[in-house]
Amino acid sequence: MFGSKKQVSTNEIENIETGEISVLKKNKNGLKELIAPGGVDASYTNHIEIASARTRYARSMQVANLPRMCTFPEFLRGMYTFGDINVSVFINPVSESSSQTDLNRTINELESERIVALDRGDINRERVIAQKKEEAEELRDSIAAGFNKLFDSSVIATIFAYSMDELERYTELLSNEMSKNLIDIKPCWAMQDEAFRSNMPYGDNKMTKSHTFDRRAMSTVFPFFTSDVGHENGIPLGFNKQTGLPILYDNFSSKLTNYNMVIFGKSGAGKSVTIKTLTARSAVLMGIESLALDAEGEYTVVAEALGGVNVTLSPNSKTVINLFDIEPENVKDEITGKERTVLSVENKVEDVTNSLLTMARGSTRSQEVNELTKQIISEAVAEEYAALGITNNVESLYTRDEHGGPIDISNNYLGRTKKEMPTIGSWFKRIQRKAEENENPDYRFHYSYLVKVMKQYVREYQGQMAYFDGQSTFELLDGLPFINIDISQLEERFARPLAQQVMLSWVWEKYVKKNSEDKSKASKKRVLVDEAWMLLPYPEAVDFLNTMARRARKRNVSLAVISQKFQDFYEKQEVQAVLTSSETKLFLAQDKSEIQYLKEVFKLSEGEAGFLITCNRGEGLLKVGGDSAIIGIQPTRKEFEFVETNLSKQAALEKARREAEEGKGY
Q1: In what helix (H) or strand (E) does residue 13 lie, and over which residues does it extend?
Q2: What separation in angstroms does the CA of 52 have from each of 17, 29, 600?
Q3: pLDDT by residue (tens digit) across 387-429?
Q4: Counting CB atoms within 10 angstroms of each CB, which of 145, 163, 395, 575 has the fewest?
Q5: What's the rounded Cα separation, in Å, for the pair 47 and 161?
Q6: Shortest CA distance to 617 belongs to which of 636, 647, 590, 637?
Q7: Is the pTM of this model over 0.85?
């Protein structure tokens, strides 16, 4: 009956201990109960569903076919580092007597096949079989001498996901990754339960599929290796935290498919200190020129320390950036291999149109701006260049002498007088005239809208963002170790992202395009885009950032994107090209809310993800191509004087420096 109590005597307890009664023992938790989830549904033929707070899906797979040769550590590396995956390798030694018997049988069978092939006149097959027989004999003799041994091994992997779509995608990705090493991996069809349990920490293999390895091949499956990230030459970027060895990094190594890099980390993780250290050492040791779009005003001291220049863009400064500036560029002819100078007005019209379109949308990203608005802007921009006689002919950029002829008909454009470029002010006046002349009712609203909202960018109307109206007041000269364009004094919500977009286009025109496509003539340049997350809400800005990431390598330029919000990059598909076009990725300390996105995109292991949540400032995960390493970046005391961003630490460094100069400190 419910509520009744039963007293257990001393004798009964003793009987329980001796095994005669199992009242208590039957409720004892074993290993299985301690590690098992709430429920596992293994009724499916090709996956398993695991019930928990959020249902997980698992698929167990087994290595079906292997290559003839195994290479350490690349053999199963793609599987071990895939991401959310469990891998089990079961190894069973084969006795020497069984090895000898099986190998002798194999040698006799191969000899029979060789004789048959020889009788048929199939020389090629006879040679292949003879080679296999020779390898089998060598293996048999080495085992007999005690120098080798055979093993039976099964390799089982279980991948996990939170949806079936993800599981299917991960399955395909893993299969493709393993096929690079000629390894065929297949799902355990109708045996998911057995394979899943085999991959649990019970040490019980319920799968019968196995492969034969010798001692050398067997050694390649062990995952005890450390990635050797770095290059033979380069700057000392930091230390490998696992080996203690320095990591040399060459941003422009020929081994890299591209020179771009991305750096992600939460606030205070050391992003600015890292990129400043990288930039300073690159300038001094490798002669790399850098240009920074400084969104937070952090790179001024770096420019001063390296002997560079600082340019400040603000409503109160006299600096003017003309987004209509256009420059010729040297391109290599695909047939002759020789360089020629070209001018593309059409590309420039598109760039200017996109910048003006962002301006027209404003901080509210108005939905009133559509394709008709873009067409009106584009037509007026094209007319501005046409009015000055600027065409795809490079000669059209320069003024002519009093007789109407060019000053110099050679390819040397030095000493020529360049025409003044169109400006936002001249473009705006053209829009006003076209609005007055317009008789098309479909265009009336768009002209009216542009005339109203674009006044704030025109100097004649004392526009608050008129720093883009007028002829540019400075040039980006080659040979400077560091150029810092400080936009930190602009309003953060819209003016600063707009300045980033306009400056990216202008920097491409005046800084990147000047670099030759011939690597022997080109300088090594780096463009730093700090706080890149500001650009993401603006489609035209994202599009230009993607284009720059894809085209930078051709000009021997490295695009470095620094941001603290990876989730924004993850959720915006349009910016994925920046990630895929960046061979170098550095992840510093991450917020817990961000780590799941990094794990999914970059296939981080649980250990790597855990490290990024708990690591100290200046520590992170460096991935260069397929290699990765735990890195610690520690600037020298002298470098800290201009790379430190913490104000209190800056004050302490300045005090120490003064004391050192006075002979009182160290």
Answers
A1: helix 10-18
A2: 36, 20, 20
A3: 999 999 999 999 875 444 544 444 444 557 889 999 999 999 9
A4: 145
A5: 11
A6: 590
A7: no
